[in-house]
Design goal:
- The protein is mainly beta.
- It has one domain: Electron Transport, Fmn-binding Protein, Chain A (Pnp Oxidase, Chain A).
- The chain is built from three helices and twelve strands; from the N terminus they run H-E-E-E-E-E-H-E-H-E-E-E-E-E-E.
- The chain has helices at 18-25, 71-74, 90-97, and strands spanning 30-31, 33-38, 42-47, 51-54, 59-65, 79-84, 110-112, 118-120, 125-137, 140-151, 159-162, 165-168.
- The strands form three sheets. It has a seven-stranded antiparallel β-sheet with strand order 3-2-6-9-10-5-4. Strands 1-11-12 form a three-stranded antiparallel β-sheet, covered by helices on one side.
- The longest helix has 8 residues, at 18-25.
- The chain starts with 17 loop residues before the first helix and ends with a strand.
């Protein structure tokens, strides 16, 4: 006996727009990372767009707005830092997400890492990566970078971004 799939009614679709995309992605839980780079001064921003691209060679990607204060440095540097934040770092995530914040001032703790990249203290894991491509994507650039050094040994659980807030995993 063949069973037909049950038909269901789908709500009226909305036209694609920046607001629709933001509304849909608010429902998508994402890990929270901070991307750093060293220009005349250190720069950084909170990213929820971090993605693993390939294992061999070890490539990752993230998006950055061309209007962000970090973009002028990120558009030119050869190396970036990628930091996976823990649930204990909500304030740090907020600092690096806030426009006009002194991101590398007190209480942010960091040091110079490989290739002169700013490395944040007490993160779950970090990588220093060599930028291999900057791909135009609307008002952003998709940065593809190859890992050259790092440390996965931080303690704790990951910080997540969901429904416009930083959240911890639930048991």
């Amino acid at each position: 006996m063949t069973v037909s799939p049950e038909l269901r009614t789908v709500g009226a679709p909305r036209q694609a727009s920046p607001d629709l995309l933001r509304s849909v992605f608010r429902r998508h839980a994402a890990g929270v990372a901070v991307i750093t780079a060293q220009g005349d001064r250190p720069v950084g921003f909170t990213a929820t767009s971090l993605s693993s691209v390939a294992a061999d060679p070890p490539l990752l990607s993230f998006g950055v707005g061309t209007g962000s204060s970090s973009w002028p440095v990120l558009s030119e540097v050869e190396y970036v830092g990628v930091h996976i934040l823990g649930e204990h770092q909500r304030e740090l995530a907020g600092t690096f997400a806030r426009s006009g914040a002194d991101r590398f001032g007190h209480p942010t703790r960091w040091s110079e890492g490989p290739e002169g990249v700013p490395i944040l203290d007490d993160v779950l894991a970090w990588l220093v990566c060599r930028v291999v491509a900057r791909v135009p994507a609307g008002d952003h650039r998709l940065v593809i970078a190859q890992a050259v050094a790092g440390d996965p040994a931080g303690a704790g659980r990951p910080l997540l971004y969901h429904q416009g807030r930083f959240n911890a995993l639930r048991d």
